[in-house]
Specification:
Blueprint lengths: L6 H25 L32 E10 L2 E5 L5 E13 L10 E9 L2 E9 L3
Parallel strand pairs: 3-5
Antiparallel strand pairs: 1-2, 1-4, 2-3, 4-5
């Protein structure tokens, strides 16, 4: 025995299928859209030298940490903030130290460019202040 769908049922089924197809085609590009929050919107990752504004307390506080080196060892920098608080900064494989080949020395001024992750500041780049 053969059953035929009513025209209304067919229209509803086709409309539902069209919505599903449209939703699937829109979902992929939305996930790949440009998000400046994660793409150096403040050019934080493009700093390649000490910025004059940093000497006057003008900097992006979400991506830049300023202070002096309290201690340095592989994958860890202890940064003494102007308030006296010492903040531990994690370095990762690929962290760039500018000038290249430089090694942070105690009491040297440093700018740390990076991001917070689970309460820890992760360094993408260290810029050493050379007078």
């Amino acid at each position: 025995m053969t059953t035929l769908s009513s025209p209304r049922t067919t229209r509803v089924t086709l409309a539902f299928a069209a919505l599903l197809a449209a939703g699937a085609s829109l979902a992929a590009p939305a996930a790949a859209q440009y998000n400046p929050r994660f793409a150096g919107a403040y050019n934080a990752d493009t700093y390649d030298q000490w910025q004059r504004g940093w000497d006057h307390d003008r900097y992006d506080r979400r991506h830049v940490e300023l202070g002096t080196v309290a201690n340095f060892q592989p994958y860890r920098l202890d940064l003494r903030r102007p308030s006296g608080f010492v903040q531990q900064i994690d370095l990762k494989n690929g962290t760039v130290i500018v000038p290249r080949g430089g090694t942070p020395q105690p009491n040297q001024h440093v700018a740390v460019i990076g991001y917070f992750s689970n309460g820890t500041f992760i360094a993408n780049r260290l810029i050493l202040r050379n007078y």
